[in-house]
Amino acid sequence: MRALTVAVVLLTGCASAEPIRLTPPAPRALSSIEAHADLDGAVVGASEQPTIVIVFASWCEHCRDELAVLESMRGSDVRIVGVNYKGHEEYDARGSSAAVRAFVHDHASWLRVVPIDDDVFSALGRPPLIPTMFVYDRHRALIETFDRRTRRPPTKAELETLLAKLRA
Q1: Which of 23, 108, 119, 129 is most enclosed, with most CB atoms within 10 A?
Q2: Domain carrying residue 95
Q3: Helices H / strands E in the chain, number of each
């Protein structure tokens, strides 16, 4: 029992000593998403609106909570795009492309979803936790990142305040 206690203390100490490193998205991340087709096969294309990009998976409970917040913002002059990375979706055999389609149909039929490849995922900075949310202004510059490793997801009020600043 004593050896187990020491091992837990050592592992805990090592884990807390490791700094969290955020890899910011590349400047081309949004344009990479816009160049891809959504689940229906239509290319996303550029927009003059601020854009919120959420990286999600069909099995992720945190993602469902965030999508509910984003759904409440529909019609507020912001484009919302969901991206689904195969590595996250199929993590631990939890999901598949069929699961994404079923999830969107049942829970987020309003959401435009782009299945992304490894190149786009790399351009986004390879976010290890989902959901991760990126907010871009109308000029397609990254304004804010909500990464669950370092901060809680935004509320509707926080996103509305941020978007109001972008419009000013």
Answers
A1: 108
A2: 22-167
A3: 7, 5
